[in-house]
Amino acid sequence: MAEKDVAGSFAPEEINCPVCRENGSESEVELLSESQTNMTYLPYIGKGGKQHIHDSNIFSKEYECSNGHKWADRESGKCWCGWKGKILGPTRIIRKL
């Protein structure tokens, strides 16, 4: 998630095309779609009274750059205790126009 600035607004997230970055090229990136699964999860209070949030929903974003590369980023929830949701693979290239 993007960091908040001093005024409390979210700073824009820096998104770069993985293929263009690897090739040393520059491109503009467009967010094509954004989605998430909607599985129920219940936070619980662990030892010491600390709340745990083990949310295994998957958040996905699909992008396309001005050079025709299209890819998706996916991530799952994590908790302060070190728990991580489903292990998802690295950014994957869907297609190149």
Q: Give start-end ranges of low-pLDDT stretches.
A: none
Give, in spatial order, the strands making up the sheet with the most strands: 1-4-5-6
Estimate nothing, just give the exact number of structural domains: 1
Give the amount of beta strand, in percent: 25-35%
Number of strands: 6
Number of separate helices:
1
Which class of secondary structure composition applies to the elements?
A: mainly beta
Q: What best-fitting shape do the alpha-carbon axes yield?
A: elongated
Radius of gyration: 17 Å
Report, as a whole number of angstroms, the end-to-end distance. Answer: 29 Å
Order of helical and strand elements: HEEEEEE
Largest sheet, strands/sense/barrel: 4 strands, antiparallel
Query: What do the pLDDT scores average to?
Result: 80
Percentage of helical residues?
Answer: under 10%
Describe the structure.
- By secondary structure, this protein is mostly beta strands.
- It has one domain (18-96).
- Helix content is 6%, strand content 34%.
- The protein contains 1 helix and 6 strands; from the N terminus they run H-E-E-E-E-E-E.
- The strands form 2 sheets. A 4-stranded antiparallel sheet has the order 1-4-5-6. It has a two-stranded antiparallel ribbon with strand order 2-3.
- The longest helix is centred in the first third of the chain and has 6 residues, at 18-23.
- The chain is elongated.
What structural keywords apply?
two-stranded antiparallel ribbon, four-stranded antiparallel beta sheet, 1 helix, mainly beta, 97 residues, 6 strands
